[in-house]
Amino acid sequence: MSRQIPRLGLVLVMIFGAQTQAPALSRAETDTDAFAEELSAATEAPESEYSAQDSEDQDSEKQASEEETAGGEESSGDGDDSVSEISDEDRATMALDSTASQWSFQFAYQISSDYHDDELDDGSTRPAGNTDFLQVRVVAPLAFKSFTILPRVTLRHYENAKGESGIGNTEIFGLIIPKSWDWGSGRFGIGPLVTLPGSEKVSKDEWGYGFATAAVNGSGNWFYGILLTQTWQSVQPDAQVPPTGSNTNPLGIAPFLNYKLARGWYVSNGDMIIQYDWDTRKWYVPIAVRVGKVFIGEKSSWNVYGEYRTSLAYSSWQGSAVKNAYRFNVTYSLPVG
């Protein structure tokens, strides 16, 4: 009997042992699934934590970038205000400066109502010049690293006392200004000058070649300078050239003096080109007065003026000498950059 009990116990142990092992195996599978889920969660958690951290970093960078942008815009705004203040003053001066680096489109009309008809040294009567002209002048700057070129084209349509009209000698001028020749308040430049043939009725059907040089400077409300031109062969009808027959044209000396008043107004000595004839060694000296106003826009400017001109010294001059001339001008300027 005692031996049967152990056997019965052994059987019971085996039965219950088998039953308990099956749930244990099932739990192992459950634990594996749970481990897989935990592993998946563990692998996803760092990604989620990284994404959150990355999002926070991106937000921080975005905020810093926005602050820098805002600061830059604020600084840029302050700079623009400063530039705007300076640029208004500069552009008021630039509007008077033919050597400034800016696009320029000029439209002018001049009427010469009468000329001096006194007797010349040879007993003849002083000839009259053209009665009026319409002028278009374009300046197209070319800026380089070490220098600037200011190509300027001047086209004029003339009419004489006989009622005849035509295109005059078109002028092409390229002023070259090295950076080292620009001292801030002014500059100096030199370049080639070419005149194209014009209508024989109002000008000369000849080519002209030469050079021109200019120097300008500004000081306070004053802006002043001088332009020199010298050509050979072609003759400019408005230059009051004497009929000497020489292929050397008179030297042109154009001093200018501008004084800036309040609210864009200014006064000037106008377009007074002094002529010196190399052959006769005689002078022609005009005198002029100009009153104008510069209108400053956001990025450009308008220069509007009226001018009166007459002859001051002309008695020994063999060419025409205007008595009364009136000019009206409108120039649109757009600074480079």
Task: Explain what you see.
This protein is an alpha+beta fold and 337 residues long. It has one helix at residues 4-94; strands at 102-115, 132-139, 142-143, 147-159, 165-167, 171-178, 186-195, 208-219, 222-232, 251-260, 265-268, 274-276, 283-296, 301-313, 322-335. It has a 15-stranded antiparallel β-sheet that branches. The longest helix has 91 residues, at 4-94. The protein is globular. The chain starts with a helix and ends with a strand.
What would a concise description of this structure say?
The chain has 337 residues and is an alpha+beta fold. Helices cover 27% and strands 41% of the residues.
Number of helices: 1
What is the alpha-carbon Rg in Å? Answer: 44 Å
Mean pLDDT: 79
Q: Report how far apart the termini are.
A: 118 Å
Number of E-state strands: 15
Shape type: globular
The ordered H/E elements are HEEEEEEEEEEEEEEE
* Residues in β-strands, percent: 35-45%
SS-based class: alpha+beta
Low-confidence stretches: 1-52, 67-86
Q: What attributes characterize this protein structure?
A:
alpha+beta; 1 helix; globular; disordered N terminus
